[in-house]
């Protein structure tokens, strides 16, 4: 079967299982942005997103044989991504306890100078907002960040997070309420 | 209308999930309730700022979300392996074609009688079956006759190249599969 950018995911997965590396190539190109957004929504740390994405795709390549139902690929990929992001978050938290604050600040400053987008992210208002967003419990932060990054509908977020639509709506309401309260306190 | 209901409607409005009934309810609340208007302005400002902060932070990542990184676009391992496999397959195919190609079947003339006259087979231990070459019209590139002599199939494929006076002929002989009953005390 000739593979292309239009080949359906289940067909790509079957081809990849049969050893077709180009199928994996198409899967990566197609889903990498989504993996990164989910990773970012889960962990809230852009610096870790690259490593998480790389871990996810390595795991996908190694574990594709264990995916019993190719139709359930997206849910399987979400779980891999979320687990990788949580592992990364735990590692970062552990490392942070062992690292002095000064070198970290210097690194951030260098990054900001090198990239205008980073400079924008570094503005005081954005930092305050990001701090409040990152301070949200994960169950509220994930749908909220996905909503903004992907402009998803409630139904799309529900599908990604494997939640009922009503739960997604409730969590978004609570996320905004908590954010409003957190920003009012500061 | 209580504050919680207003919050839900405001959230739906921000997320583009308002139904027609919701819209009427929200418009009514905004028209008659000063607290609802204040809440709407606060949530609109909060959501806008959150969106800007999230996008700025995420896109400040060295490899932004929208474009797969270079090492995914050209995975060296996969690329190298794919090239190796392709080269090996091409080499194997070429060896098979060369080994099965009776030298002298590539002619510079289109005349069938010339072709017959120039046919020659490489010496070898296996005696090739004798054919009736006049049955093959080599001037028709798509002509792919198949003859069965004994248990050997003979196929001929003509491939016309850029030069209209040259047709490249590929011949192959394959042994037919046989089905023989095997009887014994199993």
Can you give a write-up of this model?
The complex is a heterodimer of chains A (186) and B (186). With 186 residues, chain A is mostly helical. Chain A has helices at residues 9-17, 21-43, 49-63, 73-98, 101-114, 116-121, 124-134, 138-150, 154-161, 165-185. Chain A is globular. Chain B has 3 domains: 3-59; 70-100; 101-175. A 3-stranded antiparallel beta sheet of chain B has the order 1-2-3, with no helix packed on it. In chain B, helix 1 (3-14) packs across helix 2 (20-32). The longest helix of chain B has 26 residues, at 34-59. The termini of chain B are far apart. Classes of the chains: A mainly alpha (186), B alpha+beta (186). Chain A binds chain B through residues 21-22, 24-25, 28-29, 32-33, 36-37, 40, 46-47, 49-50, 57, 111, 115, 117-118, 120-121, 125-126, 129-130, 133, 144-145, 147-149, 153-154, 169, 172-173, 176-177, 179-180, 183, and chain B through 7-8, 11-12, 14-17, 42-43, 46-47, 49-63, 65-69, 72-73, 75, 78, 81-82.
Task: Give a quick set of tags describing it.
heterodimer; A: mainly alpha; Arc Repressor Mutant, subunit A; globular; B: 3 domains; 3-stranded antiparallel β-sheet; 6 helices
What's the topology here?
The complex is a heterodimer of chains A (186) and B (186).
Chain A: H1 9-17, H2 21-43, H3 49-63, H4 73-98, H5 101-114, H6 116-121, H7 124-134, H8 138-150, H9 154-161, H10 165-185
Helix pairs in contact in A: 1-2, 2-3, 2-4, 2-8, 3-4, 7-10, 8-10, 9-10
Chain B: H1 3-14, H2 20-32, H3 34-59, H4 70-73, H5 76-100, H6 112-118, E1 146-149, E2 152-160, E3 167-175
Antiparallel strand pairs in B: 1-2, 2-3
Helix pairs in contact in B: 1-2, 1-3, 2-3
